[in-house]
Amino acid sequence: MKVKIMSDDGALEGWFIALCTTAIVYILLILGFFFSSIAEAWKVMGGYVSTIYPLSFGTWLAYKAAKAIGGA
């Protein structure tokens, strides 16, 4: 089975974008243990991150549900 990063219409697949985003966040979290400036930035934006992730996951679930109901 071939893994598709680009969809048939030329857009990046959602799983690939989610993988890249998650990797970036985890890398920044790990760097925060070693660099105080990154740790301070996490303190400032922590509330935003804890809101954005559930909202993006909820949006993805709603899309999948609408797609399943619509039969597309």
Outline the fold blueprint:
Blueprint (H helix, E strand, L loop, with lengths): L13 H19 L3 H35 L2
Structure description:
The chain has 2 helices and no strands. The protein is 75% helix and 0% strand. The chain has one domain (14-70). With 72 residues, it is mostly helical. It starts with 13 loop residues before the first helix and ends with a helix. The protein has helices spanning 14-32, 36-70.
From the structure above, extract its key features.
single chain, mainly alpha, 2 helices, 72 residues
Summarize this entry quickly:
The chain is 75% helix and 0% strand. The protein contains two helices and no strands. α1 (14-32) packs antiparallel against α2 (36-70).
What string gives the helices and strands in order? HH
How much helical structure, as a percent, in the residues? Answer: over 70%
Structural class from helices and strands?
Answer: mainly alpha
Instruction: Please describe the biggest sheet, giving its number of strands, its sense, and whether it closes into a barrel.
Output: none
Beta strand %: under 5%
User: Which regions have little confidence, pLDDT < 50, spanning 5+ residues?
Assistant: none
Q: How widely separated are the two ends?
A: 23 Å
Task: Please tally the helical runs, counting DSSP H or I stretches of 4 or more residues.
Answer: 2
Rg over CA atoms: 16 Å
Spatial shape: flat
